[in-house]
Amino acid sequence: MRSVIVLGAQWGDEGKGKIVDIYSEFADTIVRPTGGNNAGHTLVVKGEKFVFHLIPSGILHPGKKCVIANGVVIDPKVLLTEIDRLKERGFLKDDAQLKIGLLANIILPYHILLDKAREEKLGSRKIGTTARGIGPCYEDKIARIGIRACDLLLPEMFAEKLRANLELKNFLLKNYFGGEEVPFQPTYDEYIAYGERLKTHLIDTSLFIEEEIQRGAKLLFEGAQGTLLDIDHGTYPFVTSSNTTAGGACTGSGVGPTKIGGVIGVSKAYATRVGGGPFPTELFDEEGQKIRDRGNEYGSTTGRPRRCGWFDAPVVRYANRLNGLAGVALTKLDVLSGLPRVKVCVAYEIDGVRREEVPLSLAGFEAAKPVYESLDGWKEDISSAREFGDLPKTAQKYVRRLEEVTGVEIILVSVGADRNQTIIRRNPFRA
Ligand code: IMP
């Protein structure tokens, strides 16, 4: 395959960062199609720690081009900090290595204030957003009042749009939420300066991607969040505000689906979720805490402890249906080492009836009781396994059972945080 989408098959935080890092080696160009700085991953390369929220980690390979496409919502302050940190450390020497979509929507201070104020008002019913202004920014985009990267390059146009937005947003912030207003002039000055700094990166990224495809380049599309957080198909309203599924990667990048060779879903060997919303296999006991501690399940963007639970096969089957998966990259199998039994949810029971599919409604989700299969665990430390055959028989059996109950081939198994702690069974770029 020449063009591969990698995306989350669960609720985000599946360990896409490591998988994208591995596959980046085989790709020429890495594209981030959707989401914003609600995403985050940490990479350790030669003992140096890098945290990425917006820029694809492929930027660490000087020969690779990276694209932040039109479907991404960009907080310029966060993006410029990422750019500056990379430059300070000797990366991104050539600005042409990073392309940013002229049509990407921009996160402004009022988006962040509205995100926070709304969550506060919702109280116990809050979504548990990352408070980065993602939802309000996507709302403005859909309402056709958003400010886009190209607007920052046109001072008069930007002033007009900013004034119109501030009139409405400040009314809401002050009168409805009882909070502070956002002043025009400092905001205008700050964002015009951001536009000036980002100018060298801003291009028609859809055209660039098309040119890359035409020249025979290999492209990796790096999805953000996870399938169950998709605005249309996820556990609404406990979702993010973009399409996190394969279709969203095409729309966000401005590339036709027929140009994509395949989609790889990333799934943990168990399940986690941050923020509110349904999670049928959630564990509230010691075993859940054990997984949280061993898997270091604390958010890389917000530091929040992640909710942990058993592998949920209906969720990954759903991800297969929505994305047409050509394979699953299974992460963090090592975290389950030492558990005497490992459980897999193979279906749900809702009102006494067995259901193979995820429910569509929140009420259905709340009523869903997992139907578990219990398998033997393994005691061995598996972090040095490099071939599938190196894994203990019970771990192999667990992986094979996951393939059976999800209907998707597991093409990669990750057994530790390091790049080389990986069992590659099939490489999609070589298929
Ligand atoms: P928002 O995207 O900040 O609006 O948050 C909406 C929901 O998506 C919340 O439950 C967040 O915890 C969740 N979310 C957003 N980004 C990520 C991510 O990168 N990983 C996991 N959950 C996320």
Structure characteristics:
431 residues, alpha/beta, ten-stranded mixed sheet, globular, binds inosinic acid
Overall description:
This protein has 431 residues and is α/β, with parallel strands linked by helices. The chain has a ten-stranded mixed β-sheet, with helices on both faces. It is 32% helix and 22% strand. It contains twelve helices and 20 strands. It has helices spanning 16-24, 76-88, 109-122, 134-142, 155-176, 184-198, 205-214, 246-253, 286-294, 313-323, 362-367, 393-406; strands at 3-8, 29-32, 41-45, 48-52, 65-68, 73-74, 98-101, 105-106, 202-203, 219-226, 262-268, 271-273, 307-309, 311-312, 325-331, 341-350, 353-355, 369-376, 410-414, 422-424. The model has no long low-confidence stretch (mean pLDDT 96). The chain is globular. It binds inosinic acid. Inosinic acid binds next to helix 4 and strand 10.
